[in-house]
Structure formats: C-alpha cells, structure tokens
Design brief:
This protein is an alpha+beta fold and about 550 residues long. It folds into 2 domains: about 425 residues, Outer membrane efflux proteins (OEP), CATH 1.20.1600; about 80 residues, Single Sheet (Outer membrane efflux proteins (OEP)), CATH 2.20.200.10. The chain is built from 10 helices and 6 strands. Strands 2-3-5-6 form a 4-stranded antiparallel sheet, with no helix packed on it. A two-stranded parallel sheet has the order 1-4. Helix 4 packs antiparallel against helix 6 and helix 4 packs antiparallel against helix 8. The longest helix has about 70 residues. The chain is elongated, with a radius of gyration of 36 Å.
Length: about 550
C-alpha cells in the first residue's frame, strides 16, 4: 500500500506547494490512490478432476447435466426450469419484496449523502440580516468622559467562504461516499440474487415435499391392502395374531410420517408467501408446484475463476468497503496538514432601515485563515493509524469473501456430480425394492415365506421411494445453488429500475470482467463483461478444476 501513495514529504514545503496549486485550482490528494485488489486466482475450482457431464439415470429428472466453462450466466436463470408459474412468482417477489425496497432506499440515502459532500468542494454563500440595539462607552475610544446615547444598528450583508482542499480531505471524503454508493448498489444486486434464489429453492422444496407425501400415501394405501390380506389369512388360521399386529404397527408408523411432512409443506408455503410480499394467510392463492412441472437444466454455465471475482455482488461489495477504507486513510492524512480558509463579506450598516445601502453605509472585509495542527496529544496520528488498521481489516475481509465464494462454487460442483450418482443409485434401489416387494407378496400368498419378510420388504421400499424423491429434488436445488454461486448474471439484466443519480453516481461502478482501478458502465447497463475467452478442456484455465 505504501508504494500506492502520493505524499507530501513535509508540512512546510507541501503547504507552499499546495498554496500555489490551490490558486491554480489543482491540489494534491494525500493518502493511497485505490486500485482494485490483484488476487492470484487459481486455475480451477476443485482439487480433483471432474468430468464434463454428470451421470445419467432413467426417468425425467435423470438426464445428464453438461458443464460449459466460460458460458455466460443468464440474467433470468430461473427460466431454465421451464415453468411459467415459477417465472411469475419470481417476478412477483422482485416487485413486492420489502427487502429490495429497503435496499433501494438505502441506496438513495447514500446517493444524497454523496451529493451533499459535493457542496464541500464549492464556495459557500450566505445572506444575513440583523438588527441590534446598542449602548457603547467612550472608554473604548479612550474618551471615558464622552457619553453616547443608545442606538439601533441594521446590517444586511452577503458572506462568501471557501475552504481550499489543498491536500484532498474533501475529495477523499467524496471518494469514500462514492464507494458507499457503489457498495449499496451491489447490496441491491446481492438482495436481488438471494431473493430469486430463495423463491426458486422454496418452490423446489415444495415440489419435493409434495412428491414425498404422494409416495407416502401410495405406500400407505399399499400397506392397507397388505393388512387386509393378512387379516384374511389370520381368519383362515394361516398367520398368527402377532403378524397382524406387526402389519398394523407398520401401517400406523407410515401414517404417523404424514403429519410432519404436511407441517413442513405448510410452513414452506408460508415462507413462499412472505418471499413474494404477502401474508401467510394468502398462501392459498399461490400456485402449487410438482417436480413433474419443472425441467432440470441440462447445460450449466461455469464461469472462469478469473471472472468470478468480477461477477459476485458480495465480492464487489467487499471491494467497495476496501475502497472506502482506503479513502479514509487519505482523509486522516490530510488532517495532519494545514487547512486554509478564504472569507469575504460585503453589505451595508445603517442606524435606520431606510438608510441601508445608502451612501456611506457599505461595509466589507476579506480575509484568509490558516490552521496547522501543532499539538493534539497524538490524536491525529492515532486516527491515521486507526484508518490504516481499518484498511487492513477490510482487505482481510475481502480476501475471506473471495475464498468463501470459491468454496461455494467448488462445493456445488462436487454436489452436482454427487447428486447424479446418488440419483442413479437410488433409482436402481427403488426399482429393486419394488421388485422385491412384489415377489415377497406373491410368495406370501402361497405361504412360502413368513410375514416378517413382507415387513422388511415394505420398509425397504418405503425408504427407497423417499430417497429417490429427495435425490431428484437435490439435483434441482444444487442447480439453483450453482447459479447463485456464480453471481446470478445480474450484469446481463436490462435496466429495470432507476438506481442512478443526476450528478453521475454511476460513473465509478466496476463492471464484471474488468480489473484495475478503471470503472465500467453503470451497474444497470445491459451487457457489461467482455466476451469470455475460450480454452481447451485441459488448458491453463478451464474453470472447472481440470475437466475431462
């Protein structure tokens, strides 16, 4: 950080140079000039080599998913699930969310604070009027014997004052406020991404719970039929009462599994209602979702590691906090140097209201003031050291945010591969459990096996069905998690709301894919990143930990 700073070496020469620069309307800004952190990003996300596509399984949700390194993340990524009710629900949430409304209000607050700070760079002009009743003594003029009668004095004047920002304190403060504006923008994008992901995840959860309930009810109906068969055999003396009681206990246990699932479904519906800005009592008006109505995305984008840090809103927000801390060092440094203020006043003073601005009533003054801190008990240098420590903290937080982002992508890539393998295994287990149950029922009818075997086959089939449903839902949930981990494609979204400012607040918002201190277009611009480079599957940066 030290080599990034432009410093005035000593207060006296810098004061002389600053005075000349101020007269020429150009002053030096002490402290570090911020540059975007240059992190050495890895060439891949995972330590092990993962395949280009996942395993395939029988059934609608068993299609193989292909990973496409370098492909753009669509702005409305949830449309890849091919569900119009889901699309409408996400749009409803984005339109009615109080979280987004609060974030936008916070952005407007930051913009107005920045605009207010712009005024510190300009002269201040004030008009004043006063009326004073006075009685003076001749002693003040060396003539104590003279006596003066009370009189009224009217004053009307205009005062102009200007603080020369020679060392950049005001400009650094403005820089910090601009960084806060950018930070709030990325907070909005983060809230936008989290809200849409939460809605889609809740929809997937609802579909999963409905599928689990359907499977449990089908198993319950099957076990009811089996109980009827066992009771008939009991009446015929083929089985004991113990076997009938065991079948009834299994049926009761399956029936007891239904209320917790129903409760979880109702709570998920309440959550979904709140996410779209409605009361839980209005959840009945929302569409219902099934796994069969959703389509698993088969082509999944995988952003290159070097691009991820310019896409994720949380990383970009952490960078703006680092920028704010950097500007804070400049403010604390500037406070160590002289502060020069120019003032001027012009007006009129008269003993009667009607005489104001008459001949001989004009008054004026011009002045300049310089304040150089000499002794503050170490306060100013301590504040500067505190600002440097705040920068170090923001830098560490930035790095932690980047590391966590890469961990999230790595975790979800591994999860998607694991989900496909799990689904295949669960599909085979469910098929085998179904065949085993049917064979056990046939053998029981002929008395070839005991009722204990039927109970075991029932339990295995019940667990296999539930595992299969959960494995199907996990593929949807982790596909959603991948889009969330990659940043959600906000940079590809067309402008939907005015988050800009009339005084150019958008000019310093970083664009994804860019680096250094150069800033891109406004955050809401339609297409910001430059085309991503293509690379061979085993190139230096495949974006997927060495795809094969």
């Amino acid at each position: 950080m030290r080599d990034q700073r432009r410093r005035c070496l000593s207060p006296v020469p810098c004061a002389a140079a600053g005075t000349i620069a101020g007269l020429l309307l150009a002053g030096c800004a002490v402290g570090p000039d911020f540059r975007s952190p240059a992190l050495a990003t890895p060439t891949g996300y995972t330590a092990t080599t993962l395949p280009l596509q996942t395993l395939a399984s029988p059934g609608k949700d068993g299609a193989s998913q292909r990973f496409v390194p370098g492909r753009e993340v669509p702005a409305q990524w949830w449309t890849l699930l091919n569900s119009e009710p889901l699309d409408r629900l996400v749009q409803l949430a984005l339109a009615n969310s109080p979280t987004l409304a609060a974030a936008e209000a916070t952005l407007r607050e930051a913009q107005e604070n920045r605009r207010a700070q712009v005024g510190s760079l300009l002269p201040r002009v004030d008009a004043g009027f006063s009326r004073d009743r006075r009685k003076i003594s001749g002693a003040g003029f060396g003539q104590p014997q003279n006596k003066f009668s009370p009189f009224t004095l009217y004053n009307a004047s205009v005062t102009v004052s200007y603080g020369l920002d020679l060392f950049g304190a005001n400009r650094r403060e403005l820089e910090a406020l601009q960084a806060q504006v950018n930070y709030q923008r990325f907070q909005i994008e983060g809230a936008y991404l989290s809200l849409s992901a939460n809605v889609v995840t809740s929809v997937v959860r609802e579909a999963s719970l409905r599928a689990q309930l359907r499977a449990a009810r089908e198993i319950l109906a099957l076990q009811q039929q089996q109980l009827s068969l066992v009771e008939i055999r009991y009446q015929a003396g083929a089985v004991s009462e113990v076997e009938v009681s065991a079948q009834r206990a299994l049926l009761a246990q399956t029936r007891a599994d239904l209320p917790p699932l129903e409760l979880e479904l109702n709570q998920n519906r309440h959550l979904l209602a709140v996410l779209v800005g409605r009361f839980p009592s209005e959840a009945a008006g929302l569409p219902e979702f099934e796994l069969d109505t959703l389509q698993l995305p088969e082509d999944l984008p995988v952003s290159l590691p070097s691009v991820l840090v310019r896409q994720r809103p949380d990383i970009l927000a952490a960078e703006e906090l680092l920028h704010t801390a950097s500007a804070g060092i400049g403010v604390a440094t500037a406070n160590l140097y002289p502060q020069i203020t120019l003032t001027g006043n012009y007006g009129s003073e008269a003993v009667t209201m009607g005489s104001l601005f008459g001949s001989g009533t004009a008054v004026w003054n011009l002045g300049a003031g310089v304040v150089q801190p000499l002794f503050r008990g170490g306060e100013l240098r301590a504040r500067r050291r505190a600002a440097v420590a705040a920068y170090d903290q923001a830098q560490a937080n930035y790095r932690e945010t980047v590391l966590q982002a890469f961990q999230e992508v790595a975790d979800v890539l591994q999860a998607l591969e694991h989900d496909a393998a799990t689904l295949r295994a669960d599909a085979e287990a469910a098929q085998a459990a179904r065949e085993s149950l049917e064979l056990t029922e046939q053998q029981l009818r002929f008395g070839a096996i005991s009722h204990v075997a039927l109970l075991d086959a029932n339990r295995q089939y019940q667990q296999a069905r539930l595992n299969l449903v959960q494995a199907q839902a996990a593929r949807y949930a982790d596909s959603v998690a991948l889009f969330h981990a990659l940043g959600g494609g906000w940079w590809n979204r067309a402008p939907e709301r005015d988050t800009g400012g009339a005084d150019g607040d958008d000019q310093n918002v970083p664009a994804p894919g860019g680096g250094g201190s150069g800033r891109g277009k406004a955050l809401s611009s339609k297409k910001q990143p430059s085309p991503l480079p293509t690379s061979p599957l085993r190139g230096k940066e495949s974006g997927y930990g060495g795809l094969q």
